């Protein structure tokens, strides 16, 4: 069927596709490679236009820890991300189950409110919430970002609900007939089946907290002890100039946990991203 | 068996626990969250927008004073609102088109698809502060590799983050770099387009371009709309990258709340609406004005959300 011309056309198309594909791949990776190169340079070389390190200085990574409380920032960030994720799951999974699989008055209204909450720019509620937390004396810490997760997170509830809806009712019916209560059904039947969805929601929440800048900026900027890495990255500065080699080293370090987690659970993650794009 | 069958067929209806209390144990915390973190702060923001107050003294009713101030008297608010609008106009189409094109390119590949997908997605994982610092370095006039490369071709590169005329473009490039999440959504949507539609179209003699226009686009339009609306709301929110870029590019690299000192660098070109909302409150102590800006932001973002909700009844409709 395929004429030689058609085959040659197909081959050219193949080459063109991969040429564009590779060019784009280089553009997507170049900034990261450039950070890596800069992190290995001497402070003086970062102020020149030379791309390749004249000499390699992996000790910059150690220096980054010595010059700022980087370890403390990393610890704070982990604390924030892990507690927020744990609390979020405790409250969001049951809520998503109730929204996906139980019938009750006010369910649609609740779902609409949760979508509104998910879409609401954080700055809208910033001042009243800041005042609320100031009254509890918790401003200056990360708790105003962690404690609300005990009430669940709107985006996670939405994501989990979209996932749980796809589980056929038959499984729930079977559990019911076997005498499971609603909580028994959730814990013994739904949880094992929803593991990919829960993994995706947990990862999103972890990434969100890990990457969060606005929240820690709002609540902890006056109290360096409780800074997260995002805030701390901006603190590499000598008297006269930015220490680009140390900034680059620390900046790359912030990517490590995210990338490790991503490669450990890539499939669940991609599925989760797809789910957020909405199967309407 | 008949009993079981009839129970099964009742489906979703059957799963109504007799005691509403059971439902409450599931949804209770989320309802408290909606009350404390959505309803209360919204009502409070509306009330505070008519008052003068700071963190230490109780609010005093001043009527529309701050509304007048924000809408007509503060020139910086207008600059910030305009900047945010420009960002919406630049970033949302750039990211949508960029994601769609890369998704189509990758879907056309076979064996190498997932490798490329991972590579393209990687930047979307970079924390915003990390990505911003990388881009400021990359585009640094004088020593940055991009301008060095341009110089090889005899082109004098612009000042990027240091030039008020180029700062927004630089941030748009940064936004485009992180397009991977949207790309994955589009890849899935494109694969969902039924193959028969393409076959039928090509039997009818439709060209590739016509197939895209009359088959692909209409089929994926719900996903496109979702992406555009969430993109608009996300851009109305745009804060971190603009704040960090201003700070790092200005060479101040101020830390903590000191970063507000470099907001908008250079020459307010990167000052966004949420940044002005923050600085008018926490910087100028005009919390009444900050709440006026918050209420306006709320109205605009909710309008977009309502469009979304009307198009996607399935979001809230009965599950399964």
Can you tell me the CATH class of the largest domain in chain A? Mainly Alpha
Shape of chain A: flat
> How many domains would you count in the coordinates of chain A?
2
Gross geometry of chain B:
globular
Description:
The complex is a heterodimer of chains A (280) and B (320). Chain A is mostly helical and 280 residues long. Chain A folds into 2 domains: 4-39; 69-232 and 255-276, MetI-like fold. In chain A, 70% of the residues lie in helices and 0% in strands. Chain A contains 14 helices and no strands. Chain A has helices at 4-39, 60-67, 70-101, 107-119, 126-136, 143-146, 154-165, 169-177, 182-193, 195-211, 214-220, 229-232, 244-264, 266-276. In chain A, helix 2 crosses helix 13 (244-264), helix 3 (70-101) crosses helix 7 and helix 3 runs antiparallel to helix 10 (195-211). The longest helix of chain A has 36 residues, at 4-39. The radius of gyration of chain A is 24 Å and the shape is flat. In chain A, 47% of the residues are buried. The mean pLDDT of chain A is 89. With 320 residues, chain B is mainly alpha-helical. Chain B is 68% helix and 1% strand. Chain B has 14 helices and 2 strands; from the N terminus they run H-H-E-E-H-H-H-H-H-H-H-H-H-H-H-H. Chain B has helices at 2-10, 20-48, 65-73, 75-107, 113-125, 128-138, 145-152, 167-177, 180-191, 195-203, 208-236, 240-249, 273-283, 287-311; strands spanning 51-52, 60-61. A two-stranded antiparallel sheet of chain B has the order 1-2. In chain B, helix 13 (273-283) runs antiparallel to helix 14 (287-311). The longest helix of chain B is centred in the N-terminal third of the chain and has 33 residues, at 75-107. Chain B is globular. The interface between A and B is large, with 118 and 118 residues.
